[in-house]
Amino acid sequence: MAQAQCWPAEGKDLHLATLITDRHRQVAKWVREELSPEGTRHYFDVWHIAKSLGKALDAASKECDQLQLWRPAIVNHLYWTAASTPDGNPAVMEAKWKSLVNHIQDIHDHDTPAFSSCAHGPLDGDQRNKEWLDPGSLAAVKLENIITRTALLKDVRQLSPQHQTFSLEAYHSLILHFAPKHTGFSYVGMYSRLLLAAALQSQCQPLRQHGKVMGRRSYATSLMKALQESYTHSPAALREVSANLSSDAPAPIAKSFEQVNKEEAVSLFLARQSRYKRT
Ligand SMILES: [Zn+2]
């Protein structure tokens, strides 16, 4: 990603309107310099930011139990900040996020025009009896420090409002499940495994909080059962499908290299060896 010429879209009329990544600083810099001038909007995946926020809260909670109590609500508020701002307006997202400092102190009107009062309705009954933080208390000060950290605010302004990368990450882990990297599969084997992973990914509802996919196993089992039943009745159809797939298989990559004769290969090898010995 470090060099512009590596970018596959260049010169191919492929314009990226939106790019969502984790918040890797070097990637962000590259996108800002190479893609943003072309109009690409770069957003950060919420999950990655929520994860580091959670860590900061856990560290602070060691001294303040009250913060541990608020932890799930604080992380939810980060997701809500992004999801409730479909146009990704940075100022609105920042104001919504910072309103949390007030909300947790039982203050629901804010002096930021971009978000002047909490979006929840009037609080009554149980909703009123929360463990509100006392203004100026250690917990309130610690929380404010975490929420208004410059680096976090910068990330919040770039939160991805609609799409997150967790489904892609879940898909990658699903591929690894069916096609582990330590095993070399044939073309047809790899193709079938990718299809299976894609079918499962499209059928199963991603579980938002953890980027995991639910219900994979039962779907995989029923899929395999259905295939088995259908091909038990018509083994010829299975043979035909399998033959068609195999005929589509491209030649091994090694075939695309130019073959050299043995003498030439030996002398190239020896030349390489002597070069290593010199250094
Ligand atoms: Zn509120």
SSE layout and pairing:
Elements: E1 18-21, H1 25-34, E2 41-44, H2 46-61, H3 65-83, H4 90-103, H5 138-147, H6 150-156, H7 166-178, H8 187-203, E3 206-207, E4 212-213, H9 216-233, H10 235-247, H11 262-278
Parallel strand pairs: 1-2
Antiparallel strand pairs: 3-4
The structure holds zinc ion.
Structure description:
With 279 residues, this protein is mainly alpha-helical. It folds into 3 domains: 4-44, no CATH class; 46-156, no CATH class; 166-247, no CATH class. The chain has helices spanning 25-34, 46-61, 65-83, 90-103, 138-147, 150-156, 166-178, 187-203, 216-233, 235-247, 262-278; strands at 18-21, 41-44, 206-207, 212-213. The strands form 2 sheets. It has a two-stranded parallel sheet. A two-stranded antiparallel ribbon has the order 3-4. The protein is extended. The two termini are 31 Å apart. Residues 1-6 and 206-214 have low confidence and may be disordered. The chain binds zinc ion. Zinc ion binds next to loops.
Q: What would a concise description of this structure say?
A:
By secondary structure, this protein is mainly α. The chain has eleven helices and four strands; from the N terminus they run βαβαααααααββααα. A two-stranded parallel ribbon has the order 1-2.
